[in-house]
Amino acid sequence: MAKRDAGTGAPERPTGFQAVARAAELLGMFTIDQPRLSLGEMTERLGVSKATAHRYATALRQAGLLRQADGAYTLGPRVVELASAALAGLTVIQVARPHLERLGAETSQTAVLSVWDGEAPVVVRVHDAAAGRIVRIVPTTGSRLPRDSAQGLVFGAFMDPADDDPRLREIRRDRLAHFPDVVEGIAALASPVFQGEEIVATMALVGTGATIASSPRAAMSRKLLAAAKALSLELGHVVEGDK
Q1: pTM of this prediction?
Q2: Residue-wise pLDDT tens digits, 100-118
């Protein structure tokens, strides 16, 4: 039961810490599968009165963290800015650039770094090595990738090493995942990047189906594996054979 103000008998307003925690809880209700919530849904999930939920929603709207349209709330533009700032702070993004540039130059393909945002891979850095080509394939930074993309399969294989799916076992063995249908005619090849013992990113090559290797023994595959290994070593990962 909520505490009541001794003078007015009205419910006591939450402390600053409680208010921040409640606002964070509200923002966490929005997901890829449910990007829109009504005030009633927020009220029910927070377990507060409609007036209290409305007060939180209004404060978050004023801060740019929520927006309202057609009777529902969605995450606001300020969330995108904060997400970008958070991603920019990840060590892997800061140190990956020369590795991506070198990989792109060695393969003449677009090199892409992705991290896991809790639900899916998201592109955080791209190096386009195809300058001067008639056709250029450049994924958009900030775009989310499907779970069955090359990057998604790599994350799935190494985040859950107990998963006995034959395809994931093969990816763990080769440290490579090939996906031939990013869109029609476009393929991707991805490899894991580790920080310590945890997978923190994937490094991938994206290009036409005719130019992206599918065999783990191809020269392009070996170059990608070497680049991902070099970045992992810089982040403190120790390969078993190197101990």
Answers
A1: 0.65
A2: 999 999 999 999 999 998 8
**Domain covering 16-83 in this structure, CATH number:** 1.10.10.10
Q: Structure tokens of 47? A: 């377990």
Nearest Cα to Cα of residue 100 among 228, 236, 194: 228
Gyration radius of the chain over CA positions:
23
Which H helix or E strand runs over 149? none
Q: What is the CATH number assigned to the segment(s) 89-242? A: 3.30.450.40
Taking the CB of residue 72, how many other CB atoms lie within 10 A of it? 14
Contacting residues for 243 by C-beta, under 8 A, at least 6 apart: none
Q: Render 27-84 in DSSP notation, one character per residue.
A: HTT--SS---B-HHHHHHHHTS-HHHHHHHHHHHHHTTSEEEETTEEEE-HHHHHHHH
The token pair at 78 is 């300020």
167's tokens:
């395809």
Of all residues in the chain, what percent carry a pLDDT higher than 90? 51
